[in-house]
Amino acid sequence: AVTACRWAQHRHARGAAPPVSRLVLWGGSVPHDLDLAADGEFLRQARLTMVVGREDPYATPDAVAALRRLLDAHRVAYEALVFDGGHRMDAPTLVEVASRG
Predict the structure, then answer these.
(1) How far is it, in rounded angstroms, from Cα 6 to Cα 90?
(2) Is pLDDT above 90 for 66?
(3) Among 3, 12, 57, 96, which one is most buried in terms of CB atoms within 10 A?
(4) Contacts 24+ apart (CB under 8 A), 93-100
């Protein structure tokens, strides 16, 4: 998730075409050192989806709540999907994410 954010931010900063139109953060967050006030436009322009497992030891309820507060504070729209499981890919959830285009 962190690497995907950095890649999308880098493309946006360079004015790369086409811009990143969709970003899925699966079991992760935005980089802790990313200044969303200064560099968050790439997230506001992309369709952002956050996916976490209910038993993911890295995506604790506190960590997810903090990420939501951060994104909300910087007017970053997102959708959130939660699946039964831990820190792993989940085939049915992946199909659901893909079907949403």
Answers:
(1) 24
(2) yes
(3) 12
(4) 93/51, 97/24, 97/49, 97/51, 100/49
Contact 33, 57 (CB under 8 A): no
Contact between 63 and 29 under an 8 Å Cβ cutoff? The reply is yes
Residue 76 near residue 39, CB atoms below 8 Å: no
Q: Which tens digits make up the pLDDT trace of 5-35?
A: 999 999 999 998 888 999 999 999 999 999 9
Q: Which two structure tokens, joined as six digits, stand for 33?
A: 């050192």
Q: Which pLDDT value is given to residue 23?
A: 96
Cβ–Cβ < 8 Å for 52, 27 = yes
Q: What is the dihedral of CA 20, 9, 46, 94, to 10 degrees?
A: 70
Distance CA 77, CA 40 (A): 11
